[in-house]
Specification:
The protein is an all-alpha fold and 294 residues long. 76% of the residues lie in helices and 0% in strands. It contains 13 helices and no strands.
Length: 294
């Protein structure tokens, strides 16, 4: 018998590798059960339980048929789509400039993107309020200079202000994968195309955009998922008449003590997030396969 066969034979009484792997997966499963599955089960149970403790499966029909919920759902989807589109457009243009239009300080700006991602979202909302709010620096400066009695800029406390704030916050989530994708493009391709007479738009359309497609899909899907669940920006800006699903959950649970309705909306919001995540995984996998087959 060879020495390698002797080394491969398990010692007497030793547990098979499959048994050891089962024991190793048990601790993370317990952590997930305590931190995720158990609270989720409580929310799902509360969503069909009245304040009196009675079982009420019609709570979902009641919430889904309410005008307040449908309005919040429409606002959530509208803000998420508009903010994601803005992030994709702004992130693509800024990534192009940082990568292919060198200027002094471009590398420092690219490094600051990572720092910007680490900032809490409500901090950006507060900063925008200090600058563009009714009593912000810009409005107060113009009112003092012109003698106006009303703030000239009043866009922040609206859906437009929420979208602009989310674009400001989440554009770096588009730029980070785009900058990584652009760094893999060989500059020789662009130089050859330019020498053959290709214009800037044609180079972007035929060389840069195909290479950026997986990053755009990944970053865009992530932005869509994040903006659907955004709470801090909408809450701190306090846009008039703009209610989203996360804000509605907060209002029902904290302000009205209607935990059943809050849990129903939370479950629907979770289902929407999981559907978007499944779409994100599908698009990324399809884009990766298509990019790899080229």
């Amino acid at each position: 018998m060879s020495a390698s066969a002797t080394l491969a034979r398990p010692a007497p009484g030793a547990a098979p590798p499959a048994d050891r792997s089962a024991f190793m997966i048990l601790p993370p499963l317990l952590v997930l059960a305590g931190l995720f599955f158990y609270p989720l089960a409580l929310i799902a149970t509360q969503s069909v339980t009245l304040a009196s403790g009675a079982f009420d499966p019609t709570s979902y029909l009641r919430v889904l048929g309410s005008r307040l919920f449908t309005t919040a759902l429409a606002h959530t989807i509208e803000i998420a789509l508009a903010a994601t589109a803005g992030c994709l457009a702004l992130g693509f243009v800024m990534s192009l400039i940082l990568t292919f239009v060198p200027f002094p300080g471009a590398r420092i700006v690219a490094r600051l993107i990572d720092l910007f991602i680490a900032l809490p979202t409500f901090l950006i909302a507060v900063a925008l309020t200090f600058v563009y709010g009714s009593a912000g620096i810009l409005n107060m400066s113009i009112m003092q200079a012109t003698g106006a009695t009303q703030p000239p800029f009043d866009f922040l406390y609206s859906m437009t202000g929420v979208i602009l704030a989310e674009v400001t916050v989440y554009t770096p989530f588009i730029m980070r994968p785009l900058l990584a994708a652009f760094s893999l493009i060989e500059t020789a391709q662009i130089e050859v195309a330019s020498s053959l007479g290709a214009g800037a738009w044609r180079i972007v359309r035929q060389i840069i955009l195909p290479a950026a497609q997986p990053a755009l899909l990944a970053g865009g899907s992530l932005c869509l998922l994040l903006t659907v669940n955004e709470f801090g920006i909408v809450f701190f800006i306090g846009a008039k008449g703009v209610t989203t699903l996360p804000l509605l959950v907060y209002g029902k649970a904290i302000q009205e003590d209607d935990y059943t309705t809050a849990c129903v909306i939370a479950i629907i919001n979770i289902a929407l997030s999981l559907a978007l995540y499944a779409l994100y995984r599908t698009l990324v996998a399809r884009a990766s396969r298509g990019h790899g087959s080229r």
